[in-house]
Amino acid sequence: MDRRNFFKIVAGSTAAAAAAGCGRSTEKLLPYVVPPDNLVPGVASWFSTVCRECPAGCGVMARNRDGRVVKLEGNPDHPVNQGTLCIRGQAALQDLYNPDRIRGPLVRDTGGTLRPSKWEEAETRVAEKLGALVKGRQGKRIALVSQLETGSLGRLMDEWTAALGARPRIAYEPFAYEAIRAANRIAFGRDAIPHYAIEEAAVLLSFGADFLETWLSPVGYARAYAQMHAFKHGKAGTFIHIQPRLSLTAANADEWIRNAPGTEALLALALLRVILEEGLATGGLDTRPFQALVKGIDLEAVAKQSGVPADAIRSVARTFAKAKPSLAVGGGVAVSGRNATHTQVAINLLNYAVGNVGKTVRFGPDSAFGKASAYRELLALTQAMARGEVEVLLLLHVNPLFALPAQAGFAEAMKKVPLVVSFANQPDETTSQAHLVLPDVHWLEAWGDYSPREGVHGLIQPTMGSVPGYEAKAVGDVLLAVGKAALQAPEGKGPLRWESFQDYLKERWKALSRELAPGKPFEVFWEESLRQGGAWRTIAPLQVELRQEALQVVAEAPKLDGEGQGPVLLTYPSFRFYDGRGANKPWLQEAPDTMIQAAWDAWVEVPAETARALGVSDGDLVKVTSPHGAIELPAYLSDSLHPGAVAIPIGQGHTAYGRYATERGKPRGANPIALLGAEPEALSGGLQWLSVRVTLSKTGGRRPLAFVQATADQDDRELAQHVGLATARELELRGAVPEKANVPSMYPDLKYPEHRWGMVVDVDACIGCQA
User: Fold this and answer.
1) Over the stretch 533-569, which tens digit does the pLDDT of each residue have?
2) How many separate helices (H) and strands (E) can be counted in the chain?
3) How does DSSP classify residue 345?
4) In angstroms, rounded to a whole number, what is the distance separating the alpha carbons of residues 387 and 407?
5) Percentages helix, strand, coil for the chain, rounded to the nearest 5?
6) Dihedrals φ, ψ of 142, to 5°?
7) CA-CA distances (angstroms) from residue 543 to 138, 216, 548?
8) Which among 464, 426, 460, 440 has a CA at the least distance from the CA of 70?
9) Positions of E strands within 303-440
10) Contact, 529 vs 506, CB < 8 A?
11) Can you tell me the mean pLDDT for 254-276?
């Protein structure tokens, strides 16, 4: 049997999908006279890969039809998401085919304009500059900043910087959850973010962690939540959420408790005090050190400061402690301020006191976020750039000019770097200021791998050939080429001896094969990994002990910049745009915000009583001013937001990110990061997202928001007919479950001669994700 006939026979099978993954498709719009070997016209193939829209690293199945990927779905074999995919993952195709994609290398000319260039010319310029620094033993004047990369590309970049004597690579993520890591260092001596087994918790208690939206691994945790919360075997889990704002995660809670911003640590320790006083701590725990810690916690004072009644605190404490097991999580971006680390330590103590650590809080299968660099490290690099200590700055899929506060000074510091190279494949604020743009391939066109947590190795393969008209090049290949040229190493020798990044990847996977599948031929292991989207193994939880340092936690609300009486600013990641990287996708712009139901804009959410005092109505433009900046946004009046706060989503306000992220060349909405200060939190080195008070003033202008749903008022009508669980059980036992109300009708009963179709949505499991 020849190769062509083989592919014709098994074209629709997963074996063909695995074998065809690396092939290139035709790039001419001509009918197939002789089809490519790996393609049967009209027959779709599926390829496994890994989503790179955020650091969660979900498994993806890409549907390729006639050489082009047309649909993405979750990979059911991948342990993180198990077949599901979020709205951002579904919209990833709009990056692949985006008309604003950079078509080839760009070089800034003497007039300051980025003009098209050839790859050879652009790479030579980089290699010559790097070579001069290496030859002069000034490698420390080279800096590389990438997004979080935990696989072979990250390792190659680390080896590349070491070979050139450059500064250690910075793995920058705007949301890096540094406080969780710092709290675990203090409490357990583990510089890591554990895996939270939400699916096994009988009671889940969240202190502002929006795990159904953007926190750590939202698709994986949404699946785990559905498993925990759905009614099975006569019972369902309970979810309690503490947050000043009614988010999508809060809306899914069985009980949402609205607290004053920044009081999460106080509430956690107040819950701990109730648990200890009522003898609800786990058996065998020496409670004396805990008693000394919470001795100064006055329940009534905490209730007054947080706005949460003392009876509610006692009720939550009992519910949480009596559940076996339970789980407390925290560290959402919007509530991370100057006390973020102490808040996380208090949550650790709460979990430890009731025996959750090692059960629902598992160290060992640690999150990839634990390998991200702290914001403090990027701030230190910025200061070095400002002092003229950096001559070459390489940026890989990061946009600090948008995601950093202006007070950090990155824009001014970057102007002092003689050569800034961006590997972005779409224009953005940072790329627009670079001297060289070397567009990377899209992750759907790339080779690579990514480990979202320990024990899970997702394999990235090209799911199609390159999009015609775009001369992109894999960043790993570019680094190898310019690195070898700078080092002047003989071909096949030296620290960067690999011919291509694909060769480097396969070498790394050969080592992984010996670890995960000893005795199995590598080619068999490779084919299996391509087919299922990676390789994984179970990591046993590590036993940890509480350290004395954890019992020194300080429970106080964070100090805020700004006027004492102004509302607290809550900046939170957008469910649709994340940190802003999704704003140039029209599908995401068109999709309404789940809670506000507005599209194509940003807004400032203002408590209704505050708006009345200012004379502000929905759609009125409001100027929001902090000690660090000011922005203008249309107001959205809220009956649920804490009266001492205002809230603005992150993601809009781009000035140079393509036609969909802007409106007639002007920013669409505004970026609330401009209102924040640049000082990192002392203990963790993370950015203080909850750090300022603001003042609001009515400008006199109007920009009504585009609402998909004009009102949330049900006009005294039920959303759906419902019956209580106890009543339903009684009716079922009596065999008297009514199918319809006994109401006279003008119309005859509808007949179903063949099929009768119906759908049921389990609202205990459905979270309203819009995916």
Assistant:
1) 999 999 999 999 999 999 888 877 778 888 777 899 9
2) 23, 29
3) H
4) 16
5) 30, 20, 50
6) -110, 130
7) 45, 22, 17
8) 464
9) 326-330, 361-362, 392-396, 419-422, 436-437
10) no
11) 94
Q: Report CA-CA distances (Å) from 255 to 252, 312, 434.
A: 9, 10, 49
Least Cα distance to 691 among 681, 700, 683, 701 occurs for 681
What residue spans of 537-688 are helical by DSSP H?
Answer: 586-590, 608-614
Structure tokens at 51: 């989503």
CA distance 281 to 320: 10
Helix or strand run (H / E) with residue 527: helix 522-532
CA gyration radius for the chain?
27
Run of H or E including 637: strand 629-638
Nearest Cα to 263, choosing from 210, 306, 205, 209?
A: 306
Beta strand spans in 378-498 (E): 392-396, 419-422, 436-437, 448-453, 456-460
Pairing of the two strands 238-242 and 203-207: parallel
Contact 566, 695 (CB under 8 A): yes
What contacts 230, CB < 8 A, 6 or more positions away?
A: 236, 762, 764, 765
User: Residue 240: enclosing H or E segment and its boundaries?
Assistant: strand 238-242
Quick one: tokens of 714? Answer: 């049900």
Burial of 14 from C-beta contacts in 10 A (0-12 / 13-18 / 19+): middle
Cis amide bond preceding 753, omega within 30 = no
CA distances to 128, 373, 731 from 148, rounded to whole Å, are 28, 8, 55
DSSP code at position 407? G
Query: What is d(CA 211, CA 193) in angstroms, rounded to the nearest whole number?
Result: 14
**Which residue, among 535, 531, 458, has the nearest Cα to 22 in the 3D structure?**
531
Beta carbons within 8 Å of 546's beta carbon, 6+ residues apart: 187, 188, 348, 349, 352
Token pair in block for residue 418: 């003689």
The confidence score (pLDDT) of residue 731 equals: 76
Query: Residue 332 carries which side chain, given as an amino acid letter?
Result: G
Q: What is the pTM of this model?
A: 0.87
Tokens of 481: 């080429």
Closest CA to 113 of 477, 476, 433: 433
Where do the H-state alpha helices sit in 435-521?
475-487, 501-516
Specify the range with the lowest mean pLDDT, choosing from 85-94, 119-128, 448-457, 706-715: 706-715
493-498's contacts with Cβ under 8 Å and 24+ in sequence apart are: 494/163, 495/159, 495/162, 495/163, 496/159, 496/160, 496/163
Please give the full DSSP string across 567-591, using - where no structure is assigned: PEEEEEEBTTTBTTTTTT-HHHHHS
Please tell me what DSSP assigns to residue 447: -
Asked if residues 298 and 304 have their Cβ atoms less than 8 Å apart, the reply is no
Q: What is the mean pLDDT of residues 744-765?
A: 80
